[in-house]
Amino acid sequence: MRPAGLAILGSTGSVGVSTLQVVSANPGEFPIVALTGYSNDALLYAQCEEHRPAWAVLVDEAAAERLERRVRAAGLPTRVDSGTQALQRVASLPEVGRVMAAIVGAAGLLPTLAAARAGKQVLLANKEALVMAGHLMMEAVRAGRGELVPIDSEHNAIFQCLPPPDGQRAQGVRRLILTASGGPFLDAPLESLAAVTPDQACAHPNWSMGRKISVDSATMMNKGLEVIEACWLFDVAPGDVDVMIHPQSIVHSMVEYEDGSVLAQMGCPDMRTPIAHALGWPRRVASGAPRLDLVASTDLSFRPADTTRFPCLALARRAAEAGGTAPAVLNAANEEAVAAFLDGRLAFTGIAAVVAGVMDAIGPEPVQSLEHVLDVDATAREVAAREIDAATRAETPA
Ligand code: NDP
Ligand code: MG
After folding, report:
1. What pTM value is reported for the model?
2. What is the pLDDT of residues 58-68, one digit of tens each?
3. If you take atom 42 of ligand 1, which residue's CA is the nearest one?
4. Which ligand is nearest to the CA of 202?
């Protein structure tokens, strides 16, 4: 039996906050051992006051010092630590049985791997870790006798539509169908996309999420990352995973079987539902999410995804097919390009162009080790920085 203790990596983020709401909706069920963030000491302090974890970690040292002073002054039972090593340490504590991996981006890789190696049940929101190093992650789960339960709404839906006990590929599955809302620019004129602003890109029609994944949803890189995520989680090839635009975000994904059956999981677009499913699994627990009004949801439509509008989806498929280090290159280039877009240094349409340039420059290699993946990640970021500079110079009038 695993201990009941829960560590939430990224508790100050969108998924982290939703996780704590589900914890509060089930008093006494999910004792919190550790909460972590990057630098948001004000929110982490409020979470410590409410949930009284044994540990709180902020990567940023100055923010951790501020947190420590307040925690001590209030007499809370929480010890405060700082730095990236501390994330790995709290993810591996013996009193922790399950770890919510909800850090955004490549920064989540090492702590999520640490949790898997330590045999924890990993509730995986941090898809970038699996995209970068899927092979190493799955190996760590096996070696540590841990378990992965998907939090991403599509993968959680597929997990629910596959037979128990562990969501591995079932006999008779014809394909997995990931649904995608299409984001805020699904029907926008193509020529308007070059001028969209970060706030427009982050205004998702159905979901409220952190800024990085919101931009990924607008480019549909998010869906591409999810194709790769599905291949690792459910042991299928990229060609077995289809993407379907479903603007209402009510059907969260589907599994089609050989006999013609298509199983779908539905619900309101609210991350508390997949989070509660994963926390309670195999039981069902309260989530606090609104109930789906079927009468009001009559308009469920589906259409194919258009890779002219969404070139990032095609780039992610190319990386999925190439395998090896290609997904790590894709992910690093995308993270750099999205950060540049959010900073106003790159046009929205520049994101796909930068990712394509980096993928052209760095060919795929078989993954040798974690160090190899981290090296490739660093190189891809350097090449991306040059591509972003070049794109900026090209856009700036002389
Ligand atoms: P947010 O940006 O809202 O939150 C990110 C969290 O990670 C915050 O706690 C942040 O701390 C922390 N963090 C940021 N950078 C670092 C770093 N370098 N080292 C350690 N911690 C860091 O992200 P989301 O909650 O939206 O997304 C989290 C993950 O879940 C992503 O991988 C995303 O793809 C995935 N996901 C999210 C969904 C959603 O609905 N939001 C849905 C499905 C998947 P601080 O607040 O202090 O900056
Ligand atoms: Mg998703």
Report:
1. 0.97
2. 999 999 999 99
3. 152
4. 1
